[in-house]
Amino acid sequence: METLFSRFYYLVENTDLTYTRYLYHQINWNNRLIGIVGSRGVGKTTMLFQYIKQNYPTGSTEVLYVSLDHIWFTTGSLWDLAVDFHNHGGKRLFLDEVHKYPDWSQVIKNIYDSFPEMKIVFTGSSILEIHKAKADLSRRAATYVLHGLSFREFIDYEYGIKINQLSLSDLLQKHVEISLEINKQIKPLVAFNEFLRYGYFPYYKEDKQIYHFRVLETINAIIDIDLPASQSMEHATLIKIKKLLSIISSIVPFTPNITKLASQIEVTRPALMNFLILLHNAHVLLLLDKKANGIKKLVKPEKIYLANTNYSYAFSGNNADIGNVRETFFFSQVQVTNSVSYSDETDFIVDNLYHFEIGGKDKTERQIQNLNNAYLAKDNIETGWGNHIPLWMFGLMY
User: Which of helix, strand or coil describes residue 265?
Assistant: First the structure.
C-alpha cells in the first residue's frame, strides 16, 4: 500500500486547480457511494484529484486514490486494500477505472456494506451500466455522467471568461440581450470555430498540433480496451465494430439501412444494433431516435452522428462537411441537458416541443413557417433576432 500512497501523493501535488469542470459543482460529495462515468479524456481523474487537493491536507492518510489498472492489482486485491486502508484509519477511497477490475461491482458493494463509515467514489467508462451490474449498486450509488467540454466551458478554459449556464427557456426568450452582453467580452465566432475543431477534450491544451491524432487514439482505446473490459468480446468482433465506425464516419449524418449495413460488416441485424448502442453508450456515436426515451433499446435510429465535432475533424480533417458539423454541435451540446429527437419537419425536436432547423446565416424560415415553437439555429451570426438564434449559443447550456 505504501507504493500506492506514494504515487497518489505525487499526482495530487501536481494537480492544477485553475479550472474545474461543470460537474464538479453538481456532485453531492457527501454521499457515501458516488459513481462518475464518462468517455476517456473528459477529465474524470483530474476532477477527483482536484476534490482531494481542495479538501484534504497534503500527506493525509484518511484519503486514498488508486487506479484499478495499476500493476499493483496484478497481485493485490481491491478487497484486501480496502481492509488495510480501513484498519489504518482510512475514511475516503477513490477508485479510478473500475471497469478494468474483475467483479468490480461486487467488491465495491462488499466494501460499502462492510465499512459504513467509509465513503467511496468510483469512476469508469461511460459504457458501464451500473443499474445492470452484478451487485445492485443502483440503490446505493449516486451516479453522474461527465461529458466533454461545452462551448461555455471552452471559453472559460481557453480564454478565462466565465459565462453563466443557460436553460433552454432563457436561451429562447433572452438570446438577444445575452448575446450582446457576451459580445462585449469575446468574439464568439472565433472561439466557436476553434471549439468545433479542438475544444471538446480538455487534453487539447497539451499539444494542439497532434490533438486530432490523439482523438483517434482515444476512439481506438475505447474500442480496443474499454469495450472488452466492459463486455465479453472477441478480437474479430472489435474489428467489425471498427469497420462499422469507418463506414458511418465517412457519411454522417448517416440514415441507416440496417439490413444493408449488417451485410456490409457481416453480422446479424441484432448484433449490428447492439454495436450501435455500445458505441452510443461509449460516447462515440449519437443515435437520433423518433422519440427520446433515455436508455437506448434495440430500435433502429433515424439518424446516426459522431458524438462530437472534434471527431468529425479527426476523421475528415478540413473536408469535414460543415452542415454535418453544425448539426453534430447542436445535438451533442443540447442532449446533455434536454431530450433531442428526430422530427419529420425539421432537423431536431427538443423536449418533444421545440422544433429546430440548423443552418448558416442565410437559412430562411421556409421549413418552419407553419410550425409552432419553431426556431432557426444559425451559424456565422453573433446576435440573432426573433426566432433566429446564433448556433454557438446552444453550447452555453452546461
Answer: helix
Confidence (pTM): 0.93
Task: Write the DSSP assignment of 14-72 as a string of letters.
Answer: T---S---GGGGTS-TTSSEEEEEE-TTSSHHHHHHHHHHHHS-TT-SSEEEEETTSGG
Helix runs in 149-267, H state only: 151-159, 168-183, 188-198, 211-221, 227-230, 235-249, 258-265
Please write the tens of the pLDDT for every residue from 44-99.
999 999 999 999 999 999 999 999 999 999 999 999 999 999 999 999 999 999 99
Tell me if 230 sits within 8 A of 99, measured CB to CB: yes
The answer to whether 389 and 377 have CB atoms below 8 angstroms apart is: yes
Q: What is the layout of strands, in order, in the sheet containing 354-359?
A: 340-341, 348-350, 354-359, 374-378, 388-390
The conformation of residue 246, written as its DSSP 8-state character, comes to: H
The amino acid at residue 110 is N
- How far is it, in rounded angstroms, from Cα 331 to Cα 339? 10
Size of the chain in residues: 398
Nearest to 226 by CA among 21, 39, 25: 39
Q: How many angstroms separate the CA atoms of 17 and 29, rounded?
A: 17
